[in-house]
Specification:
This protein has 498 residues and is of the alpha+beta class. The protein is built from 13 helices and 14 strands. The strands form 3 sheets. Strands 3, 4, 5, 6, 10 and 14 form a 6-stranded antiparallel beta sheet that branches.
């Protein structure tokens, strides 16, 4: 009997069953926890992806222009629908996250499964977003300063499989809410741009007949107004100055980037760095090299059309030896507006003309054997711009037409090979609201992260004859109001920040 008891005592067969029986609840519990963790992570991932998608869709419309709020809300409503799983709502835990019809009048709103607020600034990464970061509640002000959008997904329930209620005694402890939030902003910039900025000629609409920059870019009669850009350092509307170059900021680097047909640099609308103290010599040499004037060793070639009213047009000469026609009936460049010729302009302190240049005289003198084509036959408000005439001559192969005085639009003999692009005589630069920037306490003296209203292209109508004035016409702008000719330069990207 004793032997039997001792044998039973030492018999270990079946012990695994006992151990499994003891640990089975823990094994099942950990398995359920792992499944729950996977499910809750999947749900949170779905919600986060939805928040990111909504934020990016909305941010892509935040260009600072009127209507940007409603366009952002419309994008979120029409472009984004995300499915989430493992929630307590929907069919079998599946439901769609979507926004609702756009309103676009409030800085904070909600629709569908999300809520959002438009922001002008972001705090440090370790700080929460507060009302101090919100855009102004007045729509016209808030839309202009909005740079970011914060999107929050409405918290949704999650039911755990793991029976946590056995441990807590609370039957509701198996359920909790999952939420997600995202912040995105709109970054806009340009590449291959000349390192200049121009004060917005249309910032003070009281001085421009109520015309804004966006309206001017859309309307021929306003684009036709000739603007005198003068870098005299006062930064009044119509003035220009220089941006910091990534290759250094000496006079030679400035001249190189003004003479180069494709400057290797990029600028962001969020902020450009200014570079004061440059002299007019590099500006004159860089700009005039586009007209086939031998004034810069950095030039990679003139424009294909350099007609400028020169007498000695076929001589590859220094700038100070170029002689210009004094008789406009023999041949003349793209003339200035009448008030600029007489010195009686009133807009922008005398820097902007009325757009009434003498096209008929230009055509008769420079294309004496051709009648005015129907494409350029407009009069009054529909008079063609100088840029349109310049491009018509190129596109229709009449650059070589001789004027009454003998000048042709082709570059002088001995000049570098013309740049293939017809837009060699365009100047590209940032447009800043200088009055608003200075009223806000910012300074241009030094490298300051100055926000740009737009980037623009301006047609250089004539060489710099003396001094440092650049005579231009507005051609196009980036963003709303633009015609898309700058898209190849533009880098618009919505970007996640949080």
């Amino acid at each position: 009997m004793l032997r039997t008891i001792r044998a039973f005592w030492h018999d270990q067969r079946g012990i695994a069953l006992i151990l499994v029986s003891v640990t089975l609840p823990a094994i099942i519990g950990f398995s359920l926890l792992a499944i729950d963790m996977s499910r809750v992570n999947n749900l949170h991932n779905d919600l986060q992806k939805a928040a990111d998608a909504f934020a990016l869709a909305g941010a892509a419309e935040l260009d600072g222009l009127p209507g940007s709020w409603v366009r952002a809300e419309r994008a979120m409503a029409n472009l984004v629908i995300n499915e989430a799983t493992f929630s307590t709502v929907g069919t079998n835990g599946r439901f769609n996250l979507a926004s609702g019809p756009p309103v676009g009048t409030a800085r904070c709103n909600s629709a569908g499964n999300i809520s959002w607020c438009f922001l002008k600034t972001l705090p440090s990464d370790n700080q929460p977003i507060t009302s101090a970061n919100y855009a102004d509640a007045i729509q016209t002000v808030g839309e202009d300063e909005t740079r970011f959008i914060e999107v929050k997904v409405t918290p949704t329930g999650f039911a755990a499989i793991f029976p946590a209620s056995f441990l807590t005694g609370n039957a509701a402890s198996n359920s909790f809410n999952i939420a997600a939030a995202s912040v995105a902003g709109f970054t806009s910039g340009v590449c291959d741009y000349t390192p200049v900025f121009m004060c917005n000629p249309y910032e003070n609409t009281a001085l421009t007949g109520g015309v804004t920059l966006e309206q001017a870019a859309q309307t021929r009669q306003y684009r036709r107004r000739q603007i005198k850009l003068r870098g005299d350092g006062s930064y009044a509307p119509g003035n220009f100055a220089f941006l910091a170059s990534p290759f250094g900021n000496g006079a030679s680097q400035l001249e190189k980037m003004l003479a180069d047909s494709k400057p290797q640099n990029c600028y962001s609308r969020d902020g450009v760095d200014t570079e004061p103290g440059q002299n007019s010599g590099p500006v004159k040499d860089g700009i005039n090299s586009r007209f086939g004037i031998d004034s810069s060793s950095f030039s990679d070639g003139p424009a294909v059309n350099v007609r400028k009213g020169a007498i000695n047009w076929d001589q590859f000469v220094k700038d100070n030896k170029v002689n210009y026609q004094t008789d406009p009936t023999k041949g003349i460049g793209l003339e200035r507006d009448s008030c600029q010729i007489s010195g009686t302009c009133t807009m922008m302190g005398g820097r902007m003309g009325a757009g009434d240049w003498n096209f008929a005289r230009y055509w008769a003198a420079n294309h004496p054997l051709r009648s005015v084509p129907s494409a350029l036959s407009g009069t009054g408000a529909d008079l063609p711009t100088r840029y349109e005439v310049y491009r018509y001559e190129i596109d229709n192969n009449i650059v070589s037409d001789a004027s009454v005085g003998g000048e042709q639009g082709t570059p002088p003999t001995g000049a570098l090979t013309p740049i293939a692009t017809p837009d060699r005589r365009l100047l590209y630069g940032a447009v800043l609201d200088c009055n608003a920037i200075q009223a806000g306490g910012l300074s241009f003296n030094g490298r300051v992260n100055v926000p740009a209203r737009r980037f623009a292209s301006f047609f250089i109508t004539e060489p710099i004859i003396d001094g440092k004035d650049i005579m231009v016409e507005l051609v196009d702008i980036t963003g709303k109001g633009g015609s898309g000719t700058l898209d190849n330069f533009l880098r618009d990207e919505p970007q996640l920040y949080r």
